[in-house]
Every structure is written in C-alpha cells, then in structure tokens.
Amino acid sequence: MSSSRASSRLFWRSFAAGLLITVSLSACKPAAKGPAGPPQATIPDVTVAKPIARRLTDWDEFTGRLTSREKVEVRARVSGYLTVVSLKEGTEVKAGDLLFTIDPRPYEAIVQRAEAVLAQAKTNAELANIEAKNATTLRQGQVISTEESERRLKSAAGEQAAVRAAEAMVSAAKLDLEFTQIRAPISGRISDARVTEGNLVTGGTKDATLLTTIVALDPIYCDIEVDERSALKYREMHKSGERESALFGLIPAEMALVNQVGWPHQGQIDFVDNQINPATGTIRARAVFPNKDRLMSPGFFAKVRIPGSGEYDGLLIRDAAVGDDQGSSYVWVLDAEDKAVYRPITLGPLLDGLRVVRGGLKADDRVIILGLMSVRNGNKVKPVLADMALAAPTKDKQP
Q1: How confident is the model at residue 43 (pLDDT cuts 50, 70, 90)?
Q2: Per-residue model confidence as pLDDT tens digits over 95-120
Q3: Which of 32, 175, 348, 386 lies in the 20 to 30 Å Cα band around 327?
Q4: How far apart are CA 98 and CA 80, in angstroms?
C-alpha cells in the first residue's frame, strides 16, 4: 500500500518537472510578428501593337483545274504506211514542225496521172478554141451553118470546163501528197507517238488514226465553278458600282498550286458561261494566267481567288490576338493608364496572315498580342510595343 503511494507521488513530481521545462523553453523563444498579410500582386508583362491601317479588298476563293488554251489530236488525213516518226516525245514543238511522214510514192503517182489528164484537157481546149475562132469567120462568110458554128463554140466552152476540172484534180492530188507529211498544227508540248514506223494508218474519216496530241501551255486556263450566291453578289456589286462584273470586263485573279504558299500567279477572269448549271447550282468561269516557264500543265489542281468586294478602309491585326466569347469575337486593348479593356470586335477574312477587323477598333488602339493568359479586365499591365506585322516584339518602350 505504501509502495503504490510512493509510485504515485513520483509520477506527479516528474510530470510537474516536465511541464516547468516546457514553459521555460517557450518563454525563451522570440515573440512572433503576427499573421502574414496577402502577397503583393505582380503586374504582368504583355506585348502590344497598333492595328495596321490599309485600303483593303475582300477576296473570294474557289478551286479549279488547269486546262489548255488549245488542245489538238493529231490524226492522219490520208491513208498509208508510216515511214518516219520525226517528233521527240514530251518536248515542245512549234506550229509547222514535221512530226510524221506517210509513204508518199502512191500519192506522187496520183499527182503525175492528174497532171497528164490536165495536159490532155488543155490540148483539147486549145483545139476547140481554134475551131471556135474559125467557125466565127466561116459563119460570117456563110460557109458553114449557124448550127455548126454554135456547136463549135459550145465545144470550146466544154473543153475549158474540162481543163478546170483537171486542174482541180491536180490540186486535190497535190494536197493529198502534202498530207503525207504530218506537221504540228499549233505550238505546244507534244505527247508520245501512238503509232510507230511501219504501221498502216487510215485518214480522212472520223475514225482516222490518232497519232499524238499537242497542248498549248502559255497562257494557261483555270476553270472554276462559282456558286449561285456568289454570282448574284457580283452582279449586285456591278449594279451598285462597287465592282465590275466579269460579264462585262476583265477581273483580276490570283492563283496558287497545291504546293505553293500565297498567291504567286497573277491573271484575269476572261470568261463567264451564259447559264447556271441546274444540277450543281454553279456557273462556270475561266481565269487565264501566263505560264512562261511552262511549269504548269493541264490537269493540275489549283486555288483561285478574285475580289469579293470593292476597296474600303480597314484594320489588320494578328489572328492570335482575337478571343472568342460565346460566338462573338473580342480583343484586349489598353487605356491611357495601361489597364486592360475588353473590346468586342467584328471580324473579316484573313489577309496575308492577318485578320481583317471591320469594326470595334481604331487605328491608334494598343492591342495586346502576347501575354493574353495573364490579362484580366481592368488590371494594370506592363506593355512592350511591337510591330503588328512582325513575329517577335521589339525592345522599344511603351508609347
């Protein structure tokens, strides 16, 4: 019993000593300064640029295919055996270049025979003329009858007609002989030879043998299909005087192939068809472009753009500076105190990599183009001026 009491007194003495040590240590610590306040807010750095003011024109884009201004299927005009193939396949030829030769000997013989018939006809005609002259003299002396005189005169006229027929036969024979040399009817790039030497070719009919094809390359056409809504818009613009219609004049056009950036080819719309295709709801138009280097060929896919409006004063900004707010567009601009201001804007199309702004901005507004994630409406920012047309900001201070 006395042992339990002694253990209890020892426990409480130890507890009291530990508590005293803890209080003493706490008293030795320096006094706290109180709870910390909120951290000081930092002003974000942003890059700003002024819109680019420019006279603008909206462009409408269409797709199309390149076509040749002239395309010829070279076919034989006379029949015979092909003796010479003179063309170099896949190269450019000029109008009049010799391409194929058909064996001319049968046609030379026909020419000789026709010339012989002509010579005989001329001899008969000369004899008939002599008799006709004599008949006139004899009739005046009443040596021959009137009937005989008329017969001789008619015979002379008939022989003259025979001469003209023989001359026509000679011309036709010489023409067939000329057709044995098949020449390029136009200048352009030639295809391969569809028939080789030694083969019989037929000519002069709709089923005449196809020998090769030639396509003209400079200038080159691009056929496009314009939708009905756009066609009506262009006609309304013509009526209002905003822009001339391609129905009445040449309209500038720009073109790019599938591997080209920008619009490197400059041309014109020179033709619009006379009716809308009811199956597609489009109307065919044609643009013509120079092709001096001959690098464009018929069949290539191309993009074509034409003016979709008259000229107007507009502003250009970087497309990355534009935000979307439930279907409407906006940008952040700075006020006089360098505070961010939410500004709704009306957008137009992209032009040379920049976005057209139709309304909501002024030319002297400072638009935030970099650092948009740190911007809040009404918050102050640290602006650095940049060029709207450049990719990297400059080191200039704020304006």
Answers
A1: confident
A2: 989 999 999 999 999 999 998 988 88
A3: 386
A4: 17
Q: How much is the pLDDT for 1?
A: 42
Among 191, 187, 220, CA closest to 300: 220
Sequence letter at residue 200: L
**DSSP per-residue string spanning 57-114:** --EEEEEEEEEES-EEEEE-SS-EEEEEE---TTSEE-TT-EEEEE--HHHHHHHHHH
Query: Are residues 253 and 269 in contact, defined by beta-carbon separation less than 8 angstroms?
Result: yes
The angle that helices 105-140 and 146-178 make with each other, rounded to 10 degrees, is: 160
Name the one residue in this structure whose structure tokens are 């083969």: 199
The two three-digit tokens of residue 67, written as one number: 């076509």
347 in Cβ contact with 337 (< 8 Å): no
In the DSSP assignment, the letter for residue 339 is B
Separation between Cα atoms, residue 297 and residue 244, nearest integer Å: 30
CA dihedral 170, 171, 176, 177 (to 10 degrees): 70
Query: Cα 248 from chain centroid?
Result: 21
Tokens 């797709």 correspond to: 63
- For every residue of 270-291, DSSP letters joined together read EEE-SS-BTTTTEEEEEEEE--
Residue 195 contacts residue 82 (beta carbons within 8 Å):
yes
